[in-house]
Specification:
Blueprint (H helix, E strand, L loop, with lengths): L5 E3 L5 E3 L7 E7 L8 H12 L4 E7 L11 H12 L4 E2 L12 H9 L14 E4 L5 E5 L9 H7 L1
Parallel strand pairs: 3-4, 4-5
Antiparallel strand pairs: 1-2, 3-6, 6-7
Length: 156
C-alpha cells in the first residue's frame, strides 16, 4: 500500500507517505536539464490552483535519463525555486528503474504499468493518486501539466 512506503526528503529525513493520507497527490520524477524541465511552471500552477483543496505535488529528481539531473539535491532545489518558483515538496534524488529503483516508484509502476510496460521511459512521468492512496492514472512525460487539471478536479 502507498501509505506504507517511506521516502527521503531533501534534508535526508525519512517521510512515511501516510503523512499524505486524505490528499490528492501528483507524483513525478523530474530533471533540471531536460527539454521537459519547463513543465515545472505548469506543475507549480497546478499546485497553486489546488493546494488549498487538499492537493500535493511530490517531486523526485532522477538522474537516470541522460544524466539530466546532475548536482546535489540542494543545487536542484535552488534551481527549481529560483527558475520556476517551485514551492511544492522536492524530495531526495532517486532511481526509478533498475535494481536500485525506489520502492515508491516500484509500487507506482506495479499499479499503473502504462502502455509500454512498467518501466519509466523518461523524466516527468506523472502519477495521479486519489485521497485513499489509489493510483488513478499515469501520464506520459510529454503530457503537459495543464492537461491534468480536469482529472485533479474530479478527485478533489
Amino acid at each position: 500500500m502507498l501509505y506504507d512506503i517511506s521516502v527521503r526528503d531533501s534534508e535526508g529525513k525519512d517521510v512515511k507517505l501516510d503523512a499524505y493520507k486524505g490528499k490528492v497527490l501528483l507524483i513525478i520524477n523530474s530533471a533540471t536539464g531536460c527539454g521537459l524541465t519547463p513543465q515545472y511552471s505548469g506543475i507549480q500552477k497546478l499546485y497553486d490552483d489546488y493546494k488549498d483543496q487538499g492537493f500535493e505535488v511530490l517531486d523526485f529528481p532522477c538522474n537516470q535519463f541522460a544524466n539530466q539531473a546532475p548536482g546535489g539535491i540542494e543545487e536542484i532545489k535552488t534551481f527549481c525555486e529560483s527558475r520556476f518558483g517551485v514551492t511544492f515538496k522536492v524530495f531526495d534524488k532517486i532511481d526509478v528503474n533498475g535494481d536500485n529503483a525506489d520502492p515508491l516508484f516500484k509500487y507506482l509502476k506495479e499499479e499503473k504499468g502504462g502502455m509500454l510496460g512498467s518501466k519509466i521511459k523518461w523524466n516527468f512521468t506523472k502519477f495521479l493518486v486519489d485521497r485513499e492512496g489509489k493510483v488513478i492514472k499515469r501520464y506520459a512525460p510529454t503530457i503537459e501539466p495543464e492537461k491534468l487539471a480536469k482529472d485533479i478536479e474530479k478527485l478533489l
